Predict the structure.
Amino acid sequence: MTGFVMAGDDIALVTQTVLLERQGRDRAWWDQMRACYWPDAAVRLSWYQGDGPGFVTASEAMTGRGDASVHRLSPPAVRIVGDRALAEVPAGIEVRTEIGGVLADLASYTRIVYRLERRGGRWGIAALDCVYGRDTCLPAVPGETVTIPAAELAPYRPSYAILSWHLARRGYPPSTDLLGDDRPEETAAFYAEVRDWLGG
């Protein structure tokens, strides 16, 4: 991986690749983030669907507009078969924003599913998908009240309704057909698909 010296077993290398990708995203270290993706990687999440390098460029533009988020990660679960790897990372997407003049903390809970391939002796991300679970929004200052009219949330999926509402008001039209715990059959089919992919 350009710019990195990494050694160790494949599980450690895969784990560090996905962690470095998220660190690059959160810290605005775009070269680091970009180095984690293969050029033909596919990314599908709430506000972006496209290739990996394009996702980095779009993330940089989003951050440049003042729309930053932080990803609080849990330990990844990693499976490797040959030159393919699957890493699932439970994550909380944290956004500080203002709603109706009140400073608020939005948290969207998701599982980031990475598919990685080893090419030319190094691991890189071949696909990134998110499985959305739920989201919350609380006042940053105790005692204040955050109000989001139910009618404004109604058009969005329950697994990521508040996140979708926030993205839409910031000018990022959210996708409505992503993976989520509110659609368990689709999510089960996705996991079956990635397991098949892992097995080659």
Notes: Confidence is low (pLDDT under 50) at residues 1-5. The chain is about 30% helix and 35% strand. Helices lie at 10-27, 30-35, 52-64, 150-153, 161-169, 184-198. The radius of gyration is 17 Å.
